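re: that chain from earlier
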Amino acid sequence: MNNLEFRVPKDEKEFNEYDLFRWRLLRKPIGKTIESLKDEYEDNSFHLVGVIDNQIVACGRLHFIDDSKAQIRYMAVDKEYQRRGLGTSMLAVLESHAKDNNVDKIILNARDHAIKFYTAAKYKILEKYHGSDTGIPHTTMTKDI
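^ sequence. v structure.
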């Protein structure tokens, strides 16, 4: 995967492809609309895509809660590219961006099937998260960076 590139979506077309990718992997399977992706942090977030051969294969988003804390949301890797380190690399880029902006703590609400992934990246479990609109069990996790 020498041609893997992590970047902010480069233009409106790629932002639309990024939205479709997030929706297709995270929301469509549970019957949610594409509009359900958007929240009050969307316009002020750091959006990241993993691209191979001009095709989005991974995504993630970071938004700032306050001067020292940020939240990661919408992490996904296309099934064909899972278990190849893309998620770990994506997480590292998001954490690096947070550090570059003087954040020292990241929180996230992991789908329970992803807890092992995040604990391997040194995230600690805080508590069960009950605020999800997906109906999928989530757990709040945190990491000091």
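The first strand starts at residue 5 and ends at 7.
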